[in-house]
What we know:
- This protein has ten helices and ten strands.
- The chain is of the alpha/beta class.
- Strands 1-2-3-4-5-6-7-10 form an eight-stranded parallel beta barrel. Strands 8-9 form a two-stranded antiparallel sheet.
- α4 crosses α5 (102-121) and α5 packs across α6 (144-151).
- The longest helix is centred in the middle third of the chain and has 20 residues, at 102-121.
- The N and C termini lie close together (11 Å).
Amino acid sequence: xxxxxxxxxxxxxxxxxxxxxxxxxxxxxxxxxxxxxxxxxxxxxxxxxxxxxxxxxxxxxxxxxxxxxxxxxxxxxxxxxxxxxxxxxxxxxxxxxxxxxxxxxxxxxxxxxxxxxxxxxxxxxxxxxxxxxxxxxxxxxxxxxxxxxxxxxxxxxxxxxxxxxxxxxxxxxxxxxxxxxxxxxxxxxxxxxxxxxxxxxxxxxxxxxxxxxxxxxxxxxxxxxxxxxxxxxxxxxxxxxxxxxxxxxxx
Length: 251
């Protein structure tokens, strides 16, 4: 049976993290994914580790900023060791820093891969997590995601499928194209047009417009086994966590 993960960023606006971990564990999640602000204060790591162990949760994956990976890989590895993180992804690039052509994105891919070399050498999976901008065509018709993965041919890819759809892409051809690169997937849903404006147009998994039955099958067929439920701005994180897991378990 697939052990589903929960991106803790989904609950950043709700209660103490200890309560969040207890809530998602009680619902039946086995894994969680961390994000930068969660372990920014290194003094809190032991408490976070204790809460994870108390709730029998494994923080298998975590998001780390490129700046931290590039300038302080030792701290990244220390955090990963403490929290037992095995899969490390850089999740974003601010708009002012984004290249405007394929050559620039290929150079970014090389930079990303070079920064991650100490992480990979230490035995971790390391790669990139996308948003919509990587799936917006450049002037030459190519896509930033192509150039990133071309520039860093050993990078793993955590595919945020719904963001690709928000970039007006059909995810299935991309799943087939990068079948040997996708090591994890974010599982979230998009509300019908005009709905859930207070949640930035996102929806609980299984309640929106995404064909998660077909997408999940395609991802499982290429060997993906790390599925991370996420909602970027839920009005009720417990509702999102419960409804999404119930749907995923029904697949």
